[in-house]
Amino acid sequence: MSTKTITTTWNLGGDLTINRLGYGAMQLAGKGVFGEAKDREGAKKVLQAAVAGGVNFIDTAEAYGPKLNESLIADALHPYPKGLVIATKGGFDRPGPDQWIPNGHPNHIRENIEGSLKRLKVDTIDLWQLHRIDSKVPVEETLAPVAAAVKAGKIRHVGLSEVNIEQIERAEKVVPIVSVQNLYNLGNRQWESVLDYTVKRNIAFIPWFPLASGPDTLADKIKGIAAAHNATVAQIALAWLLKRADNILLIPGTSSLSHLQENLEAGDIILTDKEFEALSK
Q1: Whether 56 contacts 97, CB under 8 Å
Q2: Please, how many CA atoms are within 13 Å of residue 11, restricted to the half-sphere of its CB?
Q3: Surface-to-core class of residue 213, CB atoms within 10 Å of its CB (0-12 exposed, 13-18 middle, 19+ buried)
Q4: SS3 letters across 202-227
Q5: Which tens digit of pLDDT belongs to each residue from 137-153?
Q6: Residue 84 lies in a domain
Q7: Which InterPro entries does the annotation name (predicted)?
Q8: Of these four, 59, 161, 221, 265, which has the most CB atoms within 10 Å of its CB?
Q9: What is the count of structural domains for the chain?
């Protein structure tokens, strides 16, 4: 059996204790992450059920909808229960479904922050993340209004998304960075070096697309381990991430109550060292 104790919480930024199994709200938007949720009342019930199930970390973005996802969260959960941490992101233009155009101009970032505060109905954003670095704008310029918002008490902590180590270190010259949200899962580990860097730096690592279980070559192995735990393949993919590093915060998303429950139950699965190593090869 595994000798490693899986920690269930993470202290984000040194002052926000959150459950490592959170919820990502992106799927509570229209097709192409554009427009309202297909079933808005159902989406509100999913958010409420997530919090009732122990989730106290919800990830959203100005770009989801756009704007509509943040308002949905406020409609479903405000006034927020004590201890609920809502993270949002800014830095994209969304002209249409499935269209994502980085926009790191300071005025745009400033508008994103002010808009998120209003839509989420908060005085302070717990975690504001730069959704993408805009190659056309120096990151120092992009982050200047973010640093100003931190100083003004409008943002508590700052994170980055889809960045390398050099970009993290460059951003930190402007404002402290407490989290990194990169694509990472059992089947796609291109950001392994960034994850290892965040572990050393005590920075949270938030993998997006966490439910992917990897290539077909892993299928039989995962199915066997899933059967041993009376679990689904997706649950094993989440359990692997929880065991991979204590600073990993999971934000699996779904618009289904039953799938939400399945995701939350993944937190009860403890892989043995042998199982973890077999999946990691």
Answers
A1: no
A2: 3
A3: buried
A4: CCEECCECCCCCCCHHHHHHHHHHHH
A5: 999 999 999 999 999 99
A6: yes
A7: AKR (IPR020471), Aldo-Keto_reductase (IPR050791), NAD(P)_OxRdtase_dom_sf (IPR036812), NADP_OxRdtase_dom (IPR023210)
A8: 59
A9: 1
**Residue 27, domain CATH:** 3.20.20.100
Domain-embedded: residue 1: no
- Give 221-229 contacts, CB < 8 A, sequence gap 24+: 221/278, 221/279, 222/186, 222/279, 225/271, 225/275, 225/278, 225/279, 228/275, 229/269, 229/271
Residue 238 in domain: no
What tokens appear for 167 in the block?
A: 């970009």
Q: Kindly report the pTM of this predicted structure.
A: 0.96
Give the model confidence (pLDDT) of 164-182 as tens digits: 999 999 999 999 999 999 9
- Cβ-defined contacts of 229-234 (< 8 Å, 24+): 229/269, 229/271, 231/265, 231/266, 231/269, 232/262, 234/262, 234/263, 234/266
Contact call for residues 150 and 175 (beta carbons, < 8 A): yes
What domain range is 252 assigned to?
9-212+245-270
> Residue 226 corresponds to which tokens in the numbers above?
């899933």
Strands 101-102 and 92-93: antiparallel
Q: How far apart are CA 281 and CA 275, in angstroms?
A: 10
Read off the tokens for 247.
């600073």
Structure tokens at 248: 């990993």
- Positions marked active-site: 64
Give the pLDDT of residue 4.
53
| Both structure tokens of 51 | 């919090």
Residues 6+ apart with CB under 8 A from 120: 70, 73, 74, 78, 86, 88
How would you class 22 by CB atoms within 10 Å of its CB: exposed for 0-12, middle for 13-18, buried for 19 or more?
buried
Q: Which phi and psi (to 5°) does residue 18 adopt?
A: -125, 150
